Amino acid sequence: MKEKALIKSAKAGNFEAFNDLVAGHTDRIYRLALKITGNTDDSEDIVQNTFLKAIDKIDQFREDASFGTWVYAIALNEIRRCLSHRNSFKVKSIDEYLPNSHSDSTIELFDWGDPHKYMKQREIREIIDSSLENMSEKYSIPFILRYMEQLSIKEIAETLDLSEAAVKSRILRTRLALREKLSKIFRERKYEKM
Amino acid sequence: MKKCDQYIQGIADYIDGEADAALCAELEAHLKGCQNCRIMVDTLRQTVVLCRDGKREKLPEKIQAKLKDKLKEKWQKKFNK
């Protein structure tokens, strides 16, 4: 059954239709929560609370909207609620990662070549995941939605209630921050090996 | 003449295939003479590739089953079924 028909049926009280809608989004929401919180128990709770809230609010859901965008917005509130209970959550300023102007011709950027010369993919992913966990969710969420969950800029803007320009700007800053972090580590590895 | 920093958003659009033909031509002309921007293009592209490579986590099956039970219980209360 197509999404619109499933939504109509769910709003009429058909649980199996609702469950089919849920099934298409549980893994995506779980991954998003895991990337941001870094904790499997918290992420499982976030998935559960998201869909329990979706049941509460199903009558308010507009049938012309996307179910995915709607549940993402609920999930993001649950993620923020989870993070707000954490006293130890460290948020680094994005500026800590940003490079100095690369237009200064006296600064030569580090050319990675093949990054797997310096470390295995598993280690690289650990660095990326921990950087995203430590970053403000204002920056990490749009980046994860765009490049890891492959949502369009328009869908992210709708989910986060931001302009498309703001979404693009946040994604770029996160991308630059991760690039800078990886560059620093690869450069260190290169000189350790020499 | 534009400074390299002013090309940054354009470089990201270019890598993601979202730059229009005029911007592509302008960037490609700039990249010919700018080593740092060529490195920026390559490393920003690789950053996304490295983020995508690896395991895609899934909600554990046990939790999926538990979730369905919880949702069904809540659903029955809401719709009195």
Q: How is the topology of this model organized?
A:
The complex is a heterodimer of chains A (194) and B (81).
Chain A: H1 3-11, H2 15-23, H3 26-37, H4 40-57, H5 67-84, H6 121-134, H7 137-148, H8 153-160, H9 164-193
Helix pairs in contact in A: 1-2, 3-4, 3-5, 4-5, 5-8, 7-9, 8-9
Chain B: H1 8-15, H2 21-33, H3 35-52, H4 61-79
Explain how this protein is built.
The complex is a heterodimer of chains A (194) and B (81). Chain A is an all-alpha fold and 194 residues long. Chain A has two domains: 82 residues, Rna Polymerase Sigma Factor, Chain: A; 100 residues, Winged helix-like DNA-binding domain superfamily/Winged helix DNA-binding domain (Arc Repressor Mutant, subunit A), CATH 1.10.10.10. Chain A is elongated, with a radius of gyration of 20 Å. The relative contact order of chain B is 0.09. With 81 residues, chain B is mainly alpha-helical. The mean pLDDT of chain B is 90. Chain B has one domain. The chains are: A mainly alpha (194), B mainly alpha (81). Chains A and B meet through helix 2, helix 3, helix 4, helix 6 and helix 9 of A and helix 1, helix 3 and helix 4 of B.
Which CATH C-level class of the largest domain in chain A is it? Mainly Alpha
What structural class is derived from the secondary structure elements of chain A?
mainly alpha
Q: Which chains share the greatest interface?
A: A-B, 45 and 41 residues
- Helices of chain B, by number, come to 4
Overall residue-averaged pLDDT value of chain B: 90
Distance between the termini of chain A: 60 Å
- Straight-line distance between termini of chain B: 69 Å
